[in-house]
Design a protein that fits this description.
Blueprint lengths: L5 H8 L4 H16 L19 H9 L4 H17 L1 H14 L57
């Protein structure tokens, strides 16, 4: 299983996604607090790994802490690798949580005010671009007879 996105964890911990985001975070908390199981053998010792609860609480206290999000993601991945029931439940939770709009990677482009003369590039994460074009020149203003202000003819 791929690690849970750090951005998704931080966004949900910070309350992104409104009510659905809060429900997703509560669902993860309930999942993490479930008892650790190792396969069908209930007598097998519980491994000495984090359940993820400590990391969950840490990230809830400081949603902007990238190391806290990384620690939680790692704890979830390790637990999923060792607990097949947890893995199944985590995959189901992740499918639901990814539907929550967190604006992770969102782009909001705005151009306003006047007329733009020249190329405009809108988007996200550009690199290695080169633009080669003649400099945009502002069109000359003329009156109705085709003369520029000041009396010269075009």
């Amino acid at each position: 299983m791929d690690p849970v996105s750090l951005g998704l964890l931080a966004a949900l911990a910070g309350g992104a996604g409104g009510e659905l985001g809060r429900e997703a975070w509560a669902g993860l908390a309930a999942l993490v607090r479930r008892p650790f199981r190792r396969g069908d053998d209930s007598t097998a010792p519980v491994p000495a790994v984090s359940s993820g609860e400590t990391e969950l609480v840490r990230l809830a206290r400081d949603p902007g802490d990238q190391s806290g999000a990384h620690a939680l993601s790692t704890a979830l991945a390790v637990r999923a690798a060792l607990d097949s029931d947890f893995h199944t439940a985590l995959v189901a939770w992740l499918r639901q949580a990814e539907a929550v709009r967190t604006d992770e990677g969102a782009v909001h482009n705005t151009i306003s005010g006047g007329t733009q003369y020249g190329p405009v590039l809108q988007g996200r994460d550009f690199s290695g671009l080169t633009f080669a074009s003649a400099s945009a020149q502002r069109p000359r203003r003329t009156d109705r007879d085709g003369e520029e202000p000041g009396g010269t003819t075009q």
